[in-house]
TrEMBL record:
It comes from Streptomyces coryli. The keyword Transcription regulation applies. Residues 21-119 form the HTH hxlR-type domain. InterPro entries: HTH_HxlR, WH-like_DNA-bd_sf, WH_DNA-bd_sf. One of its GO terms (molecular function) is DNA binding. This is Helix-turn-helix transcriptional regulator.
Amino acid sequence: MAVSDKPKLSDLPADVFTADCPSRSVLEHVVSRWGVLVLAALLEGTLRFSELRRRIGGVSEKMLAQTLQTLERDGMVLREARPVIPPHVEYSLTPLGEQAARQVWALATWSQEHLQDVQKARTAYDAARARKD
């Protein structure tokens, strides 16, 4: 097989378990600490940057800007600058972003619903480890 005949990564079927699969970067963006929260917040509707920052406690301006840019590049977030004074930029989900947001929101909801179970498991685990030491 000549070098030019070698299939490109984009031609191969996606397999997230393969080390060089491009779907891993998509997964990383969607399930990142801030990616999940941005997607979930935008499920509620179109928001301005400052509204998103207030909605997502603890995110810095820099991290929010980076996350929005990454999700926009991946085709999940739409950034619309309104020609008004002062400048007005709004963020919303694309259809692709809405699909991803619904998936991660299900996981976020599950984590909220099972928080006590996880905390009990952690306490039991820590107690068992402490007895071994």
